[in-house]
C-alpha cells in the first residue's frame, strides 16, 4: 500500500495532467474556432448576396436580365466579377441614364455598402475579377518612372500621355483620368470597361498597375507643376503644334510686316 500511494503522488503526475489539459484545450480551439469564423464569414456573404439581389432586381434587371444573362438593352453580367460592378456603379456610370455611344461618368446614386452588396450578387453569378485592396493600388513601393513608361506604351494612345483624355471614333471618347479614385483606375485596367481593353495580371502585373497609378498621381496631383512652363492643358502635340503655328508663326509674320513697312518708309525718305 505504501508503494502504491507513493506512485500516485509522483511529482511529475501534476505536470503530465496539466500538459494533457492544455493539449486538449488547444485541440478543441483549433477544431472549432476557425469553423465558427468561416461560418460567420459565409453567413455575412450570403446576406450581402441576398441584399444585392434585391437591389439588382430594382435597378439593373430591366437591362441586364433577371438573372444577369443580358438583354438587347444590356450585356450579360455573368463572369464580369465584383470589380466591374464596383467600377461601373462606383463611378456613376451605372445605372445608365440613356443609351448612347458611351456611358459617361456621373453622380453616384448608391452608397458604398449597397455597391458592395450589388458586387457580391453579381460575383455569385460567375467568377471574375475581385475588388482590389488598398495594398494593390496604393503608392507604397511604386515606381513612377516605370509607370510612366508603361502608361505611354499601353494607354497614351487614347488617354493622352498625361491622362487628360481624348476623342475616339463614332462619338466615343477616352475619359480624363484626373480626380479618379486609384481603386477605380485599377479596376478599369483589370476589367476593360466599354471601349477600353482589359489588362489582366498576365498582361500587366499588379506591380505594373500600381506603377501606372502612381505615375498618374504624379502628373495630375494637386501640387504638380509643369517643369516645362505652360502646359497648354497637357493635351499633347496637337495643342502644342497649334500654339506654335498661331503664336509662333503669327509673331514671325508680324515681324516681317513690320520690317517691310520700315524698309518702305526708309526708301521713300
Total count of domains = 2
Largest beta sheet: strand ordering: 1-2
CATH topology of the largest domain: Cytochrome Bc1 Complex, Chain D, domain 2
In the CATH hierarchy, the architecture of the largest domain is Orthogonal Bundle
Number of helices: 11
Approximately how much beta-strand content do the residues carry? under 5%
Anisotropy-based shape:
elongated
Which runs of at least 5 residues are low in confidence (pLDDT < 50)? none
**Structural class by sheet pairing and helices:** mainly alpha
Rg (CA only): 32 Å
- What's the pLDDT, averaged over the residues? 84
Spell out the helices and strands N to C.
Answer: HHHHHHHHEEHHH
Question: How many strands?
Answer: 2
Would you kindly provide a brief summary of this structure?
This protein is mostly helical and 269 residues long. Helices cover 59% and strands 1% of the residues. The chain has eleven helices and two strands.
Describe, in plain words, how this protein is organized in 3D.
With about 270 residues, the chain is mainly alpha-helical. The chain has 2 domains: about 25-130, Cytochrome Bc1 Complex, Chain D, domain 2, CATH 1.10.760; about 135-225, Cytochrome Bc1 Complex, Chain D, domain 2 (Orthogonal Bundle). The chain is about 60% helix and about 0% strand. A hairpin with a 5-residue loop joins strand 1 (about 165) and strand 2. The longest helix is centred in the N-terminal third of the chain and has 47 residues, at about 15-60. The protein is elongated, with a radius of gyration of 32 Å.
Amino acid at each position: 500500500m505504501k508503494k502504491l500511494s507513493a506512485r500516485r503522488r509522483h511529482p511529475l503526475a501534476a505536470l503530465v495532467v496539466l500538459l494533457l489539459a492544455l493539449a486538449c484545450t488547444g485541440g478543441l480551439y483549433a477544431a472549432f474556432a476557425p469553423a465558427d469564423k468561416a461560418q460567420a464569414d459565409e453567413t455575412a456573404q450570403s446576406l450581402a448576396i441576398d441584399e444585392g439581389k434585391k437591389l439588382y432586381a430594382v435597378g439593373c434587371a430591366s437591362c441586364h436580365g433577371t438573372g444577369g444573362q443580358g438583354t438587347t438593352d444590356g450585356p450579360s453580367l455573368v463572369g464580369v466579377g465584383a470589380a466591374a460592378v464596383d467600377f461601373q456603379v462606383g463611378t456613376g456610370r451605372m445605372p445608365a441614364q440613356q443609351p448612347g455611344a458611351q456611358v459617361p461618368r456621373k453622380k453616384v446614386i448608391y452608397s458604398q455598402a449597397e455597391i458592395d452588396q450589388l458586387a457580391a450578387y453579381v460575383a455569385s453569378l460567375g467568377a471574375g475579377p475581385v475588388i482590389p485592396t488598398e495594398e494593390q493600388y496604393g503608392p507604397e513601393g511604386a515606381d513612377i518612372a516605370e509607370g510612366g513608361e508603361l502608361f505611354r506604351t499601353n494607354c497614351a494612345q487614347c488617354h493622352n500621355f498625361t491622362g487628360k483624355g481624348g476623342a475616339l471614333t463614332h462619338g466615343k471618347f477616352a475619359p480624363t483620368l484626373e480626380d479618379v479614385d486609384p481603386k477605380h483606375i485599377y479596376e478599369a485596367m483589370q476589367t476593360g470597361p466599354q471601349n477600353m481593353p482589359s489588362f489582366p495580371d498576365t498582361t500587366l502585373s499588379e506591380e505594373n498597375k500600381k506603377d501606372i497609378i502612381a505615375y498618374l498621381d504624379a502628373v495630375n496631383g494637386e501640387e504638380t507643376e509643369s517643369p516645362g512652363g505652360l502646359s497648354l492643358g497637357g493635351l499633347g502635340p496637337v495643342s502644342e503644334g497649334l500654339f506654335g503655328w498661331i503664336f509662333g508663326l503669327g509673331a514671325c509674320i508680324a515681324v516681317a510686316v513690320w520690317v517691310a513697312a520700315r524698309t518702305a518708309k526708309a526708301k521713300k525718305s
